[in-house]
Amino acid sequence: MKRPVIGVTTSKRSGWRIFPLVAFNVWLAGGRAVRWVAGREADVSSVDGIIIGGGDDISPDLYKGEVVASARLDPARDKLEHDLVLDAMAQDKPVLGICRGSQMINVALGGTLYQDAYSEFIDSRKVKTILPKKTVVPTPTSNLTSIVGAEPMRVNSLHTQAVHDLGEGLRVSARDLGGMVQAIERVRDPFAIGVQWHPEHLFYARRQRALFAALVKAARVRELDESQVTASVAEA
Predict the structure, then answer these.
(1) Does residue 228 have a pLDDT over 70?
(2) Residue 67's pLDDT is what?
(3) Where does residue 46 rank: exposed (0-12), middle (13-18), buried (19+ CB within 10 A)?
(4) Dihedral (Cα; 75, 80, 86, 87), 10-degree rounding
(5) Domains of the chain with CATH codes
(6) In whole angstroms, what is the distance from residue 58 CA to residue 44 CA?
(7) Which pLDDT does position 233 carry in this prediction?
(8) What is the pTM of this model?
(9) Which residue has the higher pLDDT, 119 or 225?
(10) Residue 201 annotated to the active site
(11) pLDDT (tens digit, 9 = 90+) per residue, 107-156?
């Protein structure tokens, strides 16, 4: 069986070092990754699923928030990823959001963000490291829990922004010990999960690899369903 193709968005500036790690995780899960950056063609119809990767902050212009002077923004990437999320929803293709990508799923579906999340959640432990030093708790009965299990897990953390108001059709699927949202998911198909941490750096952890496996599985199921429909039409 051929490997589902997963489009992966990255920063032009740092994507050269991040994409190989994401691609490695996608390969371990049974897929094949292609890199997308702003300014180059990125067509949802050409892939079986997408990953919206991590990176710079999302412009508050997208959700009528306040501008923070210290934020590093990339308007071209914002537009690309905003459109890709909406296209994926329209084409019924699965999406995994990583850190910034989780926030973009929320914003694209009408949600808002905290620009400085740790000033709002003073009991949340502020760490910036790729090492698993932050505890998050999956929400019972969530899709995330069915993928990674219900037990609290240690993850990494590099973010300053976080989900505030949820976008349409989304629910919270994990929080940290201070109550800050750490994962969101779509309540109906297509599959869409966003995590605030960076599972690509935690490929040695079974529960983190499971996130990529779930995306690839959803992409493969959709591809098989589409092939069956095409075959049925051809036979008719």
Answers:
(1) no
(2) 65
(3) exposed
(4) 170
(5) 5-235 (3.40.50.880)
(6) 21
(7) 45
(8) 0.92
(9) 119
(10) no
(11) 999 999 999 999 999 999 999 999 999 999 999 999 999 999 999 999 99
* Tokens standing for residue 74: 């990339």
The answer to whether 28 and 212 have CB atoms below 8 angstroms apart is yes
Name the catalytic one among 82, 99, 159, 201: 99
200 is catalytic: yes
The string of pLDDT tens digits covering residues 41-64 is 999 999 999 999 998 889 898 987
164: annotated active-site residue = no
User: Which listed residue (81, 159, 185, 200) is catalytic?
Assistant: 200
The angle that helices 15-28 and 206-235 make with each other, rounded to 10 degrees, is 70
Dist. CA 223–CA 233, nearest whole Å:
15
Q: What is the 3-state secondary structure (H, E, C) of 154-210?
A: EEEECCCCEECCCCCCEEEEEEECCCCEEEEEECCCCCEEEECCCHHHHCCCHHHHH
Dist CA 85 CA 43 (whole Å) = 11
